[in-house]
Amino acid sequence: MRLHEVVETVTADEPPLGRSIEIDEIVSAGRRAERRRKGGFAMAGAAALVAVVAGGAFALPAHDDTTTATTAVGTAGPTAVTSPPFSFTFGAYDAGRLHVQNPTDVSAAYQVATITVDGAPSGAYASLTVYQPGAFNEASLTNATTVTVDGQAVLQATLLADGKPRTDADRGDKAIAWQYATGAWAVVKSLSTDADNPSFTDLTALIAGFKPNTSPAPAVLPFTMAYLPAGYTAVDVAEHSLPGWDSITGSNGTVYGGAIFARNAPATGLSDPYLDLPGSFTITVSSLAATGQKPPPIDASHKCTNADAATSCTYSIVTGTTLLSVTGNLPIAEKTQVAKSIKLADLTDETTWTPATKLLHP
Amino acid sequence: MASLRKLAYLTCGDWHAAEDAVANALVKLYPRWRKLERPDLYVKTMVYRAAIDETRRPWRRERSASHAMPEIALRDPAGATDERLRLKAALDGVPPRQRAAVILRHYLGLSLEDTAQVLGCNLGTAKSQTSRGLAKLRELMAAEKIDLSEGELSHAVA
C-alpha cells in the first residue's frame, strides 16, 4: 500500500466542512485583523504633526471617582470636567446620512460609538472615539492635513497600512479629528472600499452635532465575578458590544457585553481604543442564537477554541445559547477560575445588570 | 483547503480541532499575505503548529457522553472500516512531529527544505524526522500485516 492510499483511507471519514471554514468569514476576519494592524495602535506616532488647538463649544466630562458631571460651555479653550468612571457622557445623534449610535465602550481614556452610514458600501463601518484630554496622540494620523470647518480646526487623513500606500480595497479608509476641549480630541474613523463614501465632507458634518449629555449614564454589564487575578482591574468595559478596539465593529445584537482587564493600561498617547494590551485578558458574553452559530465544536462544555498557544486561547462556557468567553494572556488555570466565578445576570432584563464599577462580588 | 485540513487532522487526530486549526491559520494568513514570500509554506506551518498545540491540550482529550448520539451498527462486508481503523491506529502510533514530517514530505510533496521550514528545524532534523517516521509507520503497519510500498518512498530519505 502506498502512503497516498494510507492517507486517503484514514481520512475517508472526513466530515463536511463545519462552521469554521467559510471563505467569506476568513476574508472578513483577515481584513479586520489587517485593519487592526493598520490602525497602528502604536503608542508613539511615527511622524510629527502640528497639533491644532481649537476652541470648542463645550467640554466632555472627564472621569473621576468623586465628582459628578457638569457641562462646561465656553468658546475659548474649555476644559474638561469630571464624571463617574465607566459612564457614557454623550448620546446618539444624526448628521446628514451619518448616524452616531449611543456609545457602547468606555475606558478611563475614551468612549466609543459606532456610526452607521446610509448608502455605504457593504462591509464599511465607522466609529466616533471621544478621548479624554491628553489621551489621543494626534501624531498617529501620520499624513493628516488641517482644514477649517465652521471656524473649527480639523485634522483629516487617509489611513495607511503600515505607512505604505493603501490598496484599492482600502482606498476609502480615512479619519478626521478635532479638539472638543483643550487637548481633548474626538476622532472619527471610517473604513470603506469606496474612496468617497463616506467622504470627508460627510465626516466633518458630525462635528457640529456633537454634544455632551448633562447626566452621564453608567455602563452596565450582564455579569459579576467573584475572582479577579491579583493586580488586575477593569480598564475597558462595553455594553452591547465587544470591548476595546473591537467595539468599533458593533455587535449586531449578538454581544451582551464584555470587559478588558489589565494590570496597566496606557491613558495617554493612544491612537485607537485598546487592542491586545500586554498581559491583559478579556471577558465577553454573547449570544449564539442570534447568529445561528454552533457552539464550539467539542464534546465537552469547556474548551479552548483558539489554536494559539495555551496562554492565549479562549476558555468558553456554553449555557444554552449563551457563550461566556475568557480570552487573553492569562494562564489557563487562572482563566478557568475567572470563568467559573462569573455569575450571569438575566440577559433579557437590563435592570438586573451591574454597573461596571461593581463587577467584583466575592 | 482539504489538504490543509488533512494535514491538521493527521497531526492532531481530531476533525473539529483540525478545522479550528485551519480556520485560525487562514485568518492569520490574510493580513500577512503581501509580506510573505511563500504563503503556502506559511499556512502549512501555522496549521502544523496549531494542530500540534491542539494535541497538547488536555481538554481536547475530554469527551462527554451526555450529548452523543447513539451509534448505529452497520454492516461492513468489505472490511473498509476495519482497515481504516487499523491504518489510523498505525499512523497515530507515529510521534506527531515525525508523522507531520512524513505527511508534508510524501503526501503533500514538499521538498526536504520546505519540510524543514514548516517544521521549524534544520535540514538534517527534517531528514531524520521523516526517516524515523517512515520507519515507525512501516513497523506499525507490518504488525497489522500491511506492507507500506517502497515505490513512491524511494526518495524519502534522500
From TrEMBL, chain A:
Record carries keyword Membrane: yes
Entry annotated with the keyword Membrane: yes
Transmembrane segments: 41-60
Recorded superkingdom: Bacteria
Keyword vocabulary terms for this entry: Membrane, Transmembrane, Transmembrane helix
Name of this chain's protein: Uncharacterized protein
